[in-house]
Amino acid sequence: MTDESWPMVEDAVFRLFNEVAAKNSGEHVAVGPQLAELGWSDIEVEYPIEACELLFRAQGRSLANTDCLDRVMLAELAALLDEPVDGIVLPDLVAGYSPGSDGDRVAGIVLGPLQGRLVVPVCGAMGTVSVGVVDAGQLTGQRLDTFDPSVYWTQVSGPLDAVLVEASTEWNRAIAAAHRALATELVALAAEALRIAVEHVKVRVQFGVQIGSFQSPRHALADASAVLEGARALLGESWRYGGRLSAQTAKVAAGRAHRAVSDAALQVCGAIGLTAEHDLHRYVERGFQVDSLCGSADQLEALLAGRLFDIYAPGRALPAIVTWAED
């Protein structure tokens, strides 16, 4: 719940992320020091949910590359860590949702360059997850050739020489937090793409009139807006109630909404929307890139279908998304 001071917090965070994006194009930035100047620890105490959501809303709007996802996930794993760490090895894009490392080797993705001390989640028997900490110097890293060239992701591999701690519960919370955060960024990216498209149809003239006066572009953008608002509403419920299933569902809905908005925006903007001079492609590319992290919409949708129908029995209703009982 926010109060009259919250708009000032929002404005300050939006300005910060806009500055980060403008000054550090193509670089991965640790925003902890800048957030500390805003008194972020106090803000998080007063607005624990809203503060986290705001970071990824600002990141999506500004197209900044920051360590916010690492911060959110590491906060859920903090009780297991004896010393500070700098990042986390995320699941490989092919693996999607599950960690790609095993008891012998590290495999996955690091956001930003390979440096510092990293938390490595490791898959175990029966779906369990343990975590260990390794030094980046033990690993080999190669920058990924990403669909969005402005992001900096590193494919990492190497031997795993670390004491492992059982972390199934903490990892489930961390990956759920990641799904909510990424869904928030996707919704923000889609909203910016939709805004650009709406502005375009207001000023683009064909046959002597604005193309926004024609039914076809208006209906396409209206349909895309409806999909986006549905994803936004589902995401809001996930932030409110928490839970792994709702977080997965929110990320699926956000990924689908971003795709729907991108399709409509590219259609109504025409060729100009594909050019480097136009901003639309930046929000389209970043959204497709973000969607691939921690399970794409396709991967998570298949996972959700499997979970839902595994527990289905004749006469029993499927579970409500926002009241899913965690194990």
From TrEMBL:
InterPro entries: AcylCo_DH-like_C (IPR036250), AcylCo_DH/oxidase_C (IPR009075). Keywords: Flavoprotein. It comes from the Bacteria. Gene3D superfamilies: Butyryl-CoA Dehydrogenase, subunit A, domain 3. Coiled coil: none annotated. GO terms for molecular function: oxidoreductase activity, acting on the CH-CH group of donors. Residues 182-284 form the Acyl-CoA dehydrogenase/oxidase C-terminal domain. The keyword Flavoprotein applies. It holds the Pfam family Acyl-CoA_dh_1. This is Acyl-CoA dehydrogenase/oxidase C-terminal domain-containing protein.
